[in-house]
Design brief:
By secondary structure, chain A is α/β, with parallel strands linked by helices. In chain A, 62% of the residues lie in helices and 6% in strands. Chain A has 17 helices and 5 strands. Classes of the chains: A alpha/beta, B alpha/beta.
Chain lengths: 432, 334
């Protein structure tokens, strides 16, 4: 029995001794779980700050009445909304003019905000109604259906804000509804109600403002998807790009890993003893990897077009541009991964770690606009985020190719930088 | 043969120079001058100098860790030297001209396992700058030379060990180099394949190639090589034709192996007293060097006089293995 315990202890000790000398295993064992925990906690937990991310909404007041002004002010003060009536001023520049309805629609189409509220002329005269047939102005909610949560939230918050910011108006509307439904008030009743209404403040108190969101629908709302209204299936292009890029990264790391296979088999030595230089070899591997990635993306989008009615053939130029630059950047990533790894097994472990991390924060697993703002910014260090943004511009927002300049520039730049760093690391293979 | 047409203008002067030099004075295929290569504190190659003449076959021998592989890699331009120089047909080892003139066959099966024989040869031919007819001819020659023409469409992983070895050799020779480095080409193959490889090397020599052959099998070196260089601890400790090396190590003497009966407890002391030595790890076997075969009789008489029972005697002319063990010792190497 003692012998057995001693053997088990020796095995345990051997395990820890081996782990202590294996830096990669140590990182995988201890740092990786903490890193993943931090990432997901950051995405879902709001980085320790406010629990729910604020929804951006643009507000256009076409009525310019006292009532609409109070509603706009209340929307601007609503803590769960990030409402704005005009574009953000440039540093040191003057405050830009307020959004018009057309300007707000364009801004939503371009992805500056997921929703816009247009308060129409005449809203002040008929802000809300109770019961059927009540006359009321209709507020328009323009939204981008790629972010379905934002539209729901803005609609709900509008009702809440309307009730809490316009309590006097609501009471008047209620009285009129009661009068109509009950067949008329006696002069005493009317006098008594008006006295009570005079005590209702024109502005909401704090207790009311912080109350639960109303969903009674006092304010008429016309909800319109201004980005995806003509599209067959709104999220297909997002998932094709998001999932596509994630798997592309895995494929590129595997393609880059062929360098490690060749190194282990001795073929790399033989190749480098021929007239092929290390730069040529890396460039060749990267070209292969980029072509493979392009083929994969093409297949993915063709599948999306065939099965999910994605409008691929209406966006061919944008698709070609984004596929080319995404494949280039992803291939560069594969080269770097192979050149920093010493064995295929190590490359596999590192690639899984990095790709899952990049895909999580870069929006491949779920859209970045669901994440807190800080995480959205962090996501911009990933290839995934730039590729998905580019494909979204092409397939979702129908933007012209020139609008892809930031994504094209960043992805090409990333590919070049990754290749240069990979070349630097590959020097260890060149000579002994 | 050996020097491809220049692919760009920058290579033209090198091409012209090489061609002119070929007419002016034929350069020595391999000239190694005072080469030193260190890996940290370890000196893998220490002041090695060596020359190989045209059409020669040099056998490079040495125990594990002697520095052979580092030297071979240095010749193929894959090692940065700490001192000295290596020239292949007059060109620096890592230069494009040297690479074109050199065919390196590594000890490992450095092939693409998922490609066919033909595809592998085409790949390595292209890496050497071959295109079109030159590539086609080179591949065809290699398939014939390696007796793989009927398996040209088979993937590497479906080939036998011997076939893989032959393909591994062929992949280093698609560009028809003037000098060939063969690093233990017969490791792990059956006698039939080994004989085929010997024939392939002989054919290479017949066609005018200079060959450098490393091996641990002494009989291979004796059979194939006309010059031997023995390396140990990073140095060349002996160099020359086999007969010269035997002469230098043993003179005209022969080796006598004498086995004693198990009961002969004082055999070691007796052997030492009579100029012999016991073989390491074998308590009953002694080696003696004798000038004449008739000297065996005197040894047997002495043993009988001293009461030692001899059960077996062998007279052996020293061979390359004797020289190798004589020079490098019998201790196991890491």
């Amino acid at each position: 029995m003692i012998d057995m315990i001693s053997m088990i202890a020796a095995i345990v000790l051997n395990g820890f001794r081996a782990l202590r000398r294996d830096r990669g295993a140590l990182i995988l064992s201890f740092i990786l779980p903490v890193a993943f925990f931090s990432i997901f906690a950051g995405i879902f937990g709001g980085m320790g700050g406010s629990s729910t991310p604020r929804v951006s909404v643009l507000v256009v007041d076409e009525d310019r009445s006292a009532v609409s002004g109070r509603l706009v002010q209340a929307l601007l003060q609503e803590p769960s909304l990030d409402a704005s009536t005009h574009p953000k001023p440039k540093k040191g520049g003057p405050v830009p003019p307020d959004y018009t309805a057309a300007g707000a629609e364009t801004a939503v189409k371009q992805g500056e905000a997921p929703a816009a509220l247009i308060i129409p002329k005449g809203f002040g005269a008929h802000p809300m109604a109770l019961g059927p047939g009540g006359e009321r102005a209709t507020i328009r909610l323009l939204h981008d259906s790629s972010d379905p949560v934002a539209a729901q939230m803005v609609a709900g918050m509008l009702q809440k804000v309307a009730m809490t910011s316009l309590p006097d108006t609501m009471a008047q509307v209620g009285m009129r509804y009661f009068e109509r439904a009950s067949g008329g008030l006696t002069p005493e009743q009317r006098k008594s109600i008006e006295a009570a209404m005079s005590r209702i403040p024109a502005s909401p108190n704090a207790a009311v403002r912080n109350g639960p969101a109303g969903d009674a629908g006092f304010v008429a709302l016309d909800v319109r998807d201004v980005v995806g209204e003509k599209k067959q299936n709104s999220m297909i292009s997002f998932y094709a790009a998001g999932i596509g890029v994630m798997f592309l990264l895995f494929t590129a790391s595997a393609a880059g890993g062929s360098l490690l296979d060749e190194s282990e088999s001795g073929a790399l030595d033989r190749i480098l003893s021929s007239r092929v230089s290390m730069t040529t070899l890396l460039a060749g591997k990267m070209a292969y990897s980029a072509l493979l990635a392009s083929a994969q993306l093409t297949l993915m989008f063709l599948w999306g077009a065939t099965v999910f009615h994605l409008d691929l053939f209406g966006h061919i130029p944008g698709f070609i541009v984004m596929t080319a630059v995404t494949s280039f950047a992803v291939a560069g990533f594969g080269m770097l991964l192979a050149s920093v790894s010493h064995t295929r097994a190590q490359a596999g472990a590192i690639s899984t770690l990095i790709i899952l991390t990049m895909s999580a924060i870069g929006g491949s697993m779920f859209p970045r606009y669901f994440m807190p703002e800080a995480m959205q910014k962090v996501g911009l260090i990933t290839i995934n985020a730039w590729a998905i943004d580019g494909y979204t511009k092409v397939f979702w927002r129908d933007e012209p190719i020139l609008q892809l300049a930031p994504q094209v520039g960043v992805l090409i730049g990333a590919g070049i930088v990754l290749f240069v760093i990979a070349r630097r690391f590959a020097r260890r293979w060149e000579y002994s | 043969m050996g020097l491809p047409w220049p692919k760009k203008m920058a290579d033209v002067h090198m091409y012209v120079y090489h061609r002119c030099m070929a007419f002016a004075a034929p350069a020595i295929p391999l000239r190694i001058d005072s080469v030193v290569k260190r890996f940290g504190d370890l000196t893998a190659v220490s002041s090695v100098s060596l020359q190989v003449r045209e059409r020669a076959c040099l056998g490079l021998l040495g125990p594990n860790g002697a520095g052979k592989s580092t030297l071979i890699r240095a010749i193929s331009g894959r090692v940065r030297l700490d001192a000295g120089s290596i020239r292949v047909f007059g060109e620096p080892a890592a230069s494009a001209a040297a690479r074109a003139a050199l065919g390196w066959v590594p000890q490992e099966l450095a092939l693409y396992p998922l490609l066919t024989c033909r595809e592998n040869l085409e790949a390595f031919g292209r890496y050497q700058g071959l295109r079109g007819k030159a590539l086609h001819d080179g591949v065809a020659w290699c398939l014939e030379w390696a007796a793989l023409a009927d398996r040209a469409g088979a993937t590497v992983k479906t080939l036998s060990g011997g076939m893989r070895r032959r393909l591994n050799m062929a992949a280093g020779l698609v560009h028809r180099p003037r000098m060939v480095l063969l690093d233990e080409p017969t490791v792990g193959v059956d006698p039939q394949s080994r004989n085929r490889i010997f024939d392939m090397v002989a054919e290479l020599r017949n066609q005018g190639a200079t060959v450098i052959y490393t091996t641990h099998y002494m009989e291979e070196a004796e059979r194939l090589c006309d010059t031997i260089a023995i390396m140990d601890h990073g140095r060349i400790i002996a160099q020359g034709p086999k007969e010269e090396l035997v002469e230098q190590s043993f003179g005209r003497r022969s080796d006598v192996l004498m086995r004693f009966a198990a009961a002969a407890g004082n055999a070691g002391a007796w052997a030492t007293a009579h100029g012999g030595m016991m073989q390491a790890g074998d308590e009953g076997l002694a080696h003696f060097a004798v000038a004449q075969p008739t000297d065996i009789a005197a040894l047997l008489d002495a043993a009988a006089r001293d009461g030692l029972e001899v059960v077996d005697v062998v007279l052996r002319r020293p061979n390359l293995e004797s020289v190798f063990l004589h020079l490098t010792g019998r201790d196991l190497r890491p």
